[in-house]
């Protein structure tokens, strides 16, 4: 009998941090953001979106999904909320600045007002695979593109829990140049 070692890797652990929310009347995401998603970022994932600082990773953290749950058992659900990173933002020693809708969804029924009164809460979070209900990976040309010298793209609906670090684009009949922005 031969036993072969198996390498196991699991991200089934939670990291302790803090979260807050940003004030916007419609409770959706902000209308602009560092990830370049445009209007999509306001309603992505049923508006369960967040700005992050440390997890932004110079833009490679855009589109990442996290389960975020607050640690107050009297006010918060056990499962918390699943969010998508759509912006960069820094708060009061927080890793997450949640949309008001996402912040409220961490709360038990009828305790959201109390949770909002805290402003900043202790949370636990973990990276989770993204799932977009039938949508496949999309690469969209951003409105900031300026033909012929500048092509801006936005990657949306990235499934799973991996980060895209670079994209190489090759134009037919021209020299190939790798680029990283």
From TrEMBL:
Record-given protein name: Expansin-like B1
SUPFAM superfamilies: Barwin-like endoglucanases
Superkingdom in the source lineage: Eukaryota
Pfam families in the record: DPBB_1 (PF03330)
Gene field: LOC111290971
InterPro entries to which the protein is assigned, alphabetical: Expan_Lol_pI, Expansin/allergen_DPBB_dom, Expansin_CBD_sf, RlpA-like_DPBB, RlpA-like_sf
Any one annotated GO CC term: extracellular region
CDD domains: DPBB_EXLB_N
């Amino acid at each position: 009998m031969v036993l072969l070692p198996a390498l196991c890797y699991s991200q089934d652990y939670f990291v302790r941090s803090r979260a807050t929310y940003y004030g916007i009347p419609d409770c959706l995401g902000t209308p602009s953001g560092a990830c370049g998603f445009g209007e999509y970022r306001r309603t992505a994932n049923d508006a369960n979106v967040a700005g992050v600082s440390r997890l932004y990773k110079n833009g490679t953290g855009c589109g990442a999904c996290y389960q975020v749950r607050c640690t107050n058992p009297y006010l918060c659900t056990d499962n918390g909320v699943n969010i998508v990173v759509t912006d960069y933002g820094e708060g009061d020693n927080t890793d997450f600045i949640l949309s008001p809708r996402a912040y409220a969804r961490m709360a038990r029924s009828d305790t959201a007002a109390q949770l909002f009164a805290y402003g900043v809460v202790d949370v636990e979070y973990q990276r989770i695979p993204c799932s977009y209900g039938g949508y496949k990976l999309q690469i969209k040309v951003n409105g900031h593109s300026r033909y012929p010298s500048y092509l801006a793209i936005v990657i949306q609906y990235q499934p799973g829990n991996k980060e895209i670090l670079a994209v190489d684009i090759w134009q037919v009949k021209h020299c190939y140049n790798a680029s990283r922005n």
